Amino acid sequence: MTEHSQARLISFKPQHPFFVGIDSDGCVFDTMEIKHKECFIPKTIELWDLQAISKYVRRAAEFVNLYSQWRGINRFPALTKTFDLLRDWPEPARRAVKIPEVSSLEAWIQSGAALSNPALEREVARTRDPVLALTLDWSNAVNQAIAEMVHGIPPFPLFRDSMEKLAGRADMICVSQTPSEALEREWAEHDIARYVAVIAGQEMGSKTEHLRIAARGKYEPDRFLMIGDAPGDLAAARGNGALFYPITPGYEEDSWERFHAEAIDRFLGGTYAGDYQKAVIVSFEKRLPATPPWKR
């Protein structure tokens, strides 16, 4: 990862006493379902030659990316996790379809590299590895499908009202593992980029890194909040000593209503931490299991 890719986070300076990091897909926008069901999964089936077990690929990928504790993870480990589930599932195994072996992709993921298309392009150029090259083709095809498919989806109700309520009191940035180009396009389309000082995508590192560079040590712990819809968002918050507010999958509008009506006031008033935060996190985690339904 280059310093240039993180320059906007490094140069960020507090302007207000409170800080809020906000995820994008599934949190601000109701885009998780359409992106995965109409873009990621069809391209996975097509490019990895999994047509003969397409219904199993769909179930495994939907579980990983939408309905489990892995919801919201970076696309590359999500792909390897999908293949792992398929490899361990007797029904698709009986179809005699070879599940892709992606050890070189797994090694790259574990290498500490930024998990982004530009970093993968450099690794493909360096190694000429066919699995990495196919992964890059897949990722580019997904991005193209998203650019063509995903538009006209507004932020969840009460997101804007919540941003207006926080404006002037809190510094805000977008914290996401979506490519920056897509983030900037989506936030500009709906005129909400004006609410955040930085739009940080996958090219700027992990969510944990985004929060660490932009905010850790610059704000009091009870004035440092992450809003997200996935366990990875909670882990990023905990990894930086921040508070967490969940936008619960399947209950997104209710979550934003509660945030606007009561959680913002608690956060700004210093009463968010403790029992209130614990209760909303317990409810959130119950919705995202670790075991897929076909194993229960």
Based on the model shown, name its key terms.
14 helices; 296 residues; 8% strand; alpha/beta; single chain; 52% helix; 5-stranded parallel β-sheet
Walk me through the structure:
- The protein is of the alpha/beta class.
- The protein contains 14 helices and five strands.
- It has helices at 7-10, 32-47, 54-66, 75-87, 90-93, 103-110, 117-127, 130-149, 159-166, 180-189, 207-214, 231-239, 252-269, 275-286; strands spanning 18-22, 170-175, 198-200, 224-228, 243-246.
- Strands 3-2-1-4-5 form a five-stranded parallel sheet, sandwiched between helices.
- α10 (180-189) links the parallel β2 (170-175) and β3.
- The longest helix has 20 residues, at 130-149.
- The radius of gyration is 19 Å and the shape is globular.
- The mean pLDDT is 95.
Write a concise synopsis of the structure shown.
The protein is an alpha/beta fold and 296 residues long. The chain contains 14 helices and five strands.
**Contiguous uncertain segments of 5+ residues:** none
pLDDT averaged over residues: 95
Percent of residues in helical segments?
Answer: 40-55%
- N-C termini distance: 40 Å
Count of DSSP H/I helices: 14
Count all strands and give the number. Answer: 5
Radius of gyration: 19 Å
Query: What structural category do the secondary elements indicate?
Result: alpha/beta
Q: Describe the largest sheet.
A: 5 strands, parallel
